[in-house]
Description:
Blueprint: H1 7-12, H2 19-49, H3 57-82, H4 90-125
Helix pairs in contact: 2-3
Amino acid sequence: MNHVEDQSLHYSRPHSRTPEESKAVRKKILVVTGLLSLITVVEILIGVYFSKTHVGEGTWTLIKWFYIILTLVKAGYIVLVFMHLGDENKSLRTTVLLPMVLVIYLIFIALFEGEVLIQYVQEFMK
């Protein structure tokens, strides 16, 4: 019969990293935090300097899409780095992220088709 080591002892020991590993982890956290902060500052500046009353409809639509893209980039970085999905293998990442991408795609299709349907109804009511 094989002797099995008590797993609770393994998890009760303090985690040890080399100074180089600790420095790499801190650098990664600072880079991602800086990137997320930069994206947030860009979003805020755009929101402060541009409003729907000061820009045309085409520019406003571009600003909205820019916000959506920046928000998705921030969400992706948060999931990959701070929720540790980036450390998992590719099949698990695909299993988690692919349904989200498909849901976002379906929402886009529903919004686009809804807008087209509203235009048809408005033309019909004329």
